[in-house]
């Protein structure tokens, strides 16, 4: 399963990791890295991460049989409009975005009927950003979710699926709205909470703030790592998965109030029961080899 | 700096790590491990972690020049009452608990005037529990906070300080109430949030719940790790640092509502600004070598 020409648009942590994996497994005749940032392009060239490196979207996707968007979701509509006239018949367009209904809403309408849209989302990443932060093994043993519609060309779906399998991922298909709901709780809410708690600490009086960093090993540092993720990407995720995030946030707030009340009234048994329940989930995560 | 006889009461993750470090650095003539749990004692014996292993508090602390409590905070008052008559003149009593005002409140009144209480809190740990989970290097490069009062014997404080230095920790002294405030934000709130969000996920409909585990690599798994911490220990922490935790929780809730509102109203600039601010803290944590 190889592609003649693969263009990856946006060559940051995910895009460059995918590019590295594609090169390592020999899955593309020509791998094209597209980045609008000149410094990023220079880094891609110096790290020798792609066969062609360009800021020109049209040149990049011309003759490509696979185009993968790895930019913040808010850019999809504009990128779609620019690349649409240059897409060859049968070209597959995919992405790695963390929200999937927005892809159907923003990107699908811009593409020509002769191109096939297969939205995707690899469940992998780190808190780091940029082409230098990527690595080829990022997707090994991780899930990639594809969200084609009932109308999507099955050959195109299978081709994208084969690519992810080839670089070591397991692939699951689901509806875009179901994806967005699952990711709201597993990913979006944890990031929102991490950003919030770190922000709360930043606002503390100066004398405590330096100590927050000093004694961060007690739990806080894990939140700072999550909150180090790319702000632009995360802004777009929250704005494009608004309803599911707000619903999960409402549930979380209720649960938090219940614990707050138990602390206030000294209800130790309630706390112990809730903590024990939560602890059991860790075992499931370890058993599912996602730890 | 060595002690003739050190008794560590409670030989779980922290107690057994401390025991291992003390043995490795040759800081005790005799190291006594005390655990009320028979299975834990058998494990301590089979791992050869101490010179004496007992469930008898009085026998353990008799003739000890240093006694360290490493049990949940709620047990301190009872342990204090049992060991008090057996403490020799000049004996130092310390602990490793995550809250420090409660130690002055619950443990101090039980001890005889001829013993010296030097409360301590090593800022180190993992989500694992039990004697088998400990390791000697746990405290290396980490902070240990001591919270003596103005009346505490300085020689005793220096002796405890020297012990922590010897096993690789940096030591800082502060007031117990200040400690409890700092730890409320750096440790207690992150754990409460992690327990909450994992609990919220547990309550989701069955079809989503299995997927929450499956796709946990997207952020959720970090919370499950934190929420795998010992439920009894954490119940006691929240019940014994109620005011500071409730205050920090109030601040967090306000900040969370501000972000929630921004998501609802599509205020992207506000989100981006908050996320960027939070990201900067990660750099401080890395520079402080606590990452």
Q: What does this molecule look like?
A:
Two copies of one chain form a homodimer. Chain A is built from twelve helices and nine strands. With 291 residues, chain A is α/β, with parallel strands linked by helices. The first copy, chain A, folds into two domains: 3-174, NAD(P)-binding Rossmann-like Domain (Rossmann fold, 3-Layer(aba) Sandwich), CATH 3.40.50.720; 178-287, 6-phosphogluconate dehydrogenase C-terminal fold (Orthogonal Bundle), CATH 1.10.3660. The first copy, chain A, is globular, with a radius of gyration of 21 Å. The two termini of chain A are 30 Å apart. In chain A, 55% of the residues are buried. The interface between A and B is large, with 90 and 90 residues.
Overall number of domains of chain A: 2
What share of residues of chain A is helical? 40-55%
* Rounded Rg of chain A: 21 Å
Quickly name the level 1 CATH class of the largest domain in chain A.
Alpha Beta
**CATH architecture designation of the largest domain in chain A:** 3-Layer(aba) Sandwich
